[in-house]
Design goal:
17 helices, two-stranded antiparallel sheet, Alkaline Phosphatase, subunit A, binds zinc ion, 2 domains, ten-stranded mixed sheet
Length: 456
């Protein structure tokens, strides 16, 4: 009898050891969305940090790399109900609701019916919820988690619905949608609903509990490459720290969606330096979020993107005629290819960049064509890039699109598009129940997997 019991006990222990832990243990989710962050953006950033000897990364490793090495990867599609390529509205709607939708639509399925979002479900379970972004809070991604409209352009309506839904944390840009026109009184109404309002770093620091509505710019927050000009604006990481401080006071747990929205903007502008700095911004955020998950039981960090933007990468270019170097004994002809294979030094140039090329272009466009002399263009470009740029060999530099294209050619950079692509996207889950997010899936599968992780 004793032996029998011992055998049973050993068997039970063996079964417990070999059966994988069941999902459903997650209490807190921090969902980081790199808007427009295709897999090439992840490669472009992590490769530079590892191999380009950058002064910003003496240890040659990024938080993103740490997450990739310590987490579970997945690859997922993002097509909508009837289009191969998506926009941020449909993508965020499909991710937040698990329903197929259409480009431009916020929080509604493809038939136009309101679809319940993850944050609305979490609210019903008594959890705290929040959205943080570095664009404006009424933009597609935060909007699709908190509101329901036919069209992403209905920003005033989105702002009203957001306050009505009342997440514990709303932070980012977009003050004008809460304080002008038909929404002139929305800030007052938000206060009545219990929101503390902050419009800069100082005001945000004073808020310790309750609900937070942080609106740190009229529209979007500045590009990371230009943030140094705006020390009063909290960074995406600072906003996220405050959001977690507030949300984690709920014993039932929280779900926070953080959008790094400018990766998309930099890629739309085909601006590699700004793109790199937006990835740095995301990496700094992970530098806070991952240790938080390490020390906070039952916390899941899920990082993904809504779509790819730009399809940018390094390339090689032929500099001229190939030269025959020698013939081997076997008669093979060896060429000096005269090929420039793109250089690690380009990464160092990214770190020097001081302006967004999109903003520079907009400024230069305002000048009359006669004023856009090669000398002025070279001077302005050099100031923006942070190193002396020589455009003397550029053809027709006054054509600004051509000017930036030639600059990229010289740096060995190529972009396939100024818009979005259908590239499948990488996801990385880290922490509790990260294993739920492996394999090849679709962005409508994220919500069911989140529910499984939460034990709903
Ligand atoms: Zn976009």
């Amino acid at each position: 009898m004793k032996n029998m019991r011992r055998v049973l006990f050993v068997l039970l222990a063996f079964v417990l050891m070999t059966v994988p832990a069941l999902a459903g243990n997650v209490k807190n989710i921090i969902w980081v969305i790199g808007d427009g962050m295709g897999p090439e953006a992840i490669g472009f950033f992590t490769e530079g940090v590892r191999y380009a000897n950058l002064p910003d990364y003496p240890e040659k490793t990024s938080n993103l790399e740490r997450m990739l090495n310590g987490g579970t990867w997945g690859l997922f599609f993002n097509n909508t109900y009837d289009t191969l390529v998506t926009d941020s509205a449909a993508a965020a709607t499909q991710m937040a609701t698990g329903q197929l939708s259409r480009p431009g639509v916020i929080g509604e399925d493809y038939n136009g019916a309101a679809a319940k979002t993850l944050l609305e479900m979490a609210r019903e379970k008594g959890m705290s919820v929040g959205v943080v972004t570095d664009v404006y809070v009424t933009d597609a991604t935060p909007a699709a988690f908190t509101s329901h409209t036919q069209n992403r352009r209905q920003k005033m309506e989105i702002a009203r619905q957001m306050i009505d839904f009342g997440p514990e944390v709303i932070m980012g840009g977009g003050l004008k949608y809460f304080s002008t026109g038909e929404n002139k009184k929305l800030l007052k109404q938000a206060k009545k609903k219990g929101y503390h309002i902050a419009t800069n770093k100082k005001e945000l620091a004073k808020i310790k509990s309750g609900k937070v509505l942080g609106l740190f710019a009229e529209q979007a927050l500045p590009m990371t490459v230009e943030m140094y000009m705006h020390p009063q604006i909290p960074t995406l990481t600072e906003q996220t720290q405050k959001a977690v401080e507030i949300l984690s006071q709920n014993p039932n747990g929280f779900i926070l969606m953080v959008e790094a929205g400018k990766i998309d903007w930099a890629a739309h502008g085909n601006d590699a330096g700004a793109w790199f700095k937006e990835m740095q911004n995301l990496d700094t955020l992970l530098g806070y979020v991952l240790p938080y998950a390490d020390k906070t039981p039952d916390t899941l960090v899920y990082l993904n993107a809504d779509h790819d933007t730009g399809l940018g990468a390094f390339t090689y270019r032929h500099l001229g005629q190939q030269k025959v170097m020698e013939k081997t004994a076997q008669g093979e002809v060896l060429y000096d290819g005269n090929v420039d294979y793109a250089s690690f030094k380009t990464y160092h140039q990214f770190l020097l960049q001081k302006r967004s090329l999109y903003n520079l272009k907009e400024e230069l466009k305002k000048l009359s064509p006669e004023k856009r002399t090669p000398a002025l263009l070279q001077e302005q470009l050099s100031i923006a890039m942070g190193y002396p740029v020589d455009i003397s060999a550029f053809k027709n530099p006054a054509d600004l699109d051509g000017l930036f294209k030639q600059l990229d050619e010289e740096r060995g950079l190529v972009w396939a598009t100024p818009s979005h692509s259908s590239l499948p996207l990488l996801s990385v889950a880290y922490g509790e129940d990260a294993g739920e997010f492996s394999g090849l899936y679709h962005n409508t599968d994220i919500l069911p997997r989140m529910k499984a992780a939460l034990g709903w």
